[in-house]
Write a structure and sequence with these properties.
The chain has strands at about 5, 10-15, 20-25, 35-40, 45-50, 60, 70-75, 80-85, 90-100, 110-115, 120-124. By secondary structure, the chain is an all-beta fold. About 35% of the residues are buried.
């Protein structure tokens, strides 16, 4: 059974940084892509960033490009999202998800294991 657990959210001021972590237990971690999505009460869940199983390919939403960096450590079954220059509009619940293949998809339907989410709140 695969379990995905995120951590690292919190309340920060605009311009600050946070690093989210995601541990996926069960299964062979390196065989699957990993992605971060976020959701607010006003918006549907949206893709933020994804990384291929090997870590060789990364993808970012336009809103994240240049500020966020996704990475993974396959030896530790852990993925990360480094978020710099946070803005109030980044406030959301952030979810980590494990893909159903090694390749990154921006479609949430291509991810079959999800964490419980971690709240990120950015004050102005």
């Amino acid at each position: 059974q695969v379990q995905v657990v995120e951590s690292g959210g919190g309340l920060v001021q605009a311009g600050a940084s946070l690093r989210l972590s995601c541990v996926a237990s069960g299964g062979t971690f390196s065989r699957y892509s990993m992605a971060w999505f976020r959701q607010t009460p006003e918006k549907e869940r949206e893709f933020v960033s994804g990384i291929s199983g090997s870590g060789g390919s990364t993808y970012y939403a336009a809103s994240a490009k240049g500020r966020f960096t996704i990475s993974r450590d396959n030896d530790k079954n852990t993925g990360y999202l480094q978020m710099n220059g946070l803005k109030p509009e980044d406030t959301a619940v952030y979810y980590c998800a494990r893909g159903n293949s090694a390749y990154v998809s921006k479609d949430a339907r291509d991810y079959d294991y999800w964490g419980q989410g971690t709240q990120v709140t950015v004050s102005s």
